[in-house]
């Protein structure tokens, strides 16, 4: 009889691998990636409006200041993102000091650009001084309202200009001192040392004086600014937010860390850097909002509507010698 057929071996089933559950990356990496997208959005928003101004460069005396103010938010957001990234990738820590120095220097330049934009939009400092001389006497803003008011005209313009420009000079000097102190190993670039605390306190005092004098100028020249610009309050507010909001926010957070968190722990641990990192993450988000508002309130098609005074009209020789 024929041999029985050989059984066909069945293919062996390979053991099925259990699918691995999806594991989210660490929270700090997700936050770092989102902050990176925010920084890209800030740069895209600012560059888009700068491109529009460059294509319609019909008022260079004003638009050059507008273009300069557009880059404050991207520089501030970039410095904040690099600060966050340095907690993840330590070699980036060497770039933080340079970016903070660039941010502080450009912060002073932005305040100067805002001053020049406001005064040039109403015909220059001499024309604005002449309008003040014909205006009613204005009181000083709170909390200095109890002091004798500055005389409308030369004294008001000179004091407001001095208060704003002292910030423009003081901020770069303090930034260079912090940079040199960090390079010499005298500080770690944060508010965890007495030297950093002292320098940041001086910078905060200078910023308060500059902001007060800028608000005083806008108050006494409100009619002229309203006649020349649309939404002058928002124009000043968005640039002031780009310069001073994140500055005071970072100062407040670091003061809280230095005075409340560190005395209870007696050492700088991860929780301190988490607090600083979260604050820097919110800076990137805030700078995106600021960049959008700058894009909205500094449109390309806007031009000053106030008639300019003839050269030297109503301006004393004393004023002319100071501002020219």
Description:
The chain has a single domain, classed as Up-down Bundle (Rhopdopsin 7-helix transmembrane proteins), CATH 1.20.1070. The protein is 70% helix and 0% strand. It is built from 11 helices and no strands. It has helices at 27-55, 60-70, 72-88, 93-121, 125-133, 154-183, 194-220, 222-228, 232-265, 270-297, 317-323. The chain starts with 26 loop residues before the first helix and ends with a helix.
Name the poorly predicted regions.
305-324
| Tally of separate helices | 11
CATH class type: Mainly Alpha
Radius of gyration: 28 Å
CATH architecture call: Up-down Bundle
User: What is the SS-derived class?
Assistant: mainly alpha
Helix content: over 70%
Summary tags:
324 residues, mainly alpha, Rhopdopsin 7-helix transmembrane proteins, 11 helices, 70% helix, elongated, membrane, transmembrane, transmembrane helix, Ostalpha/TMEM184C
Which secondary structure elements does this structure contain, and how are they paired or packed?
Elements: H1 27-55, H2 60-70, H3 72-88, H4 93-121, H5 125-133, H6 154-183, H7 194-220, H8 222-228, H9 232-265, H10 270-297, H11 317-323
Helix pairs in contact: 1-2, 1-3, 1-10, 2-4, 3-4, 3-10, 4-6, 4-9, 6-7, 7-9, 9-10
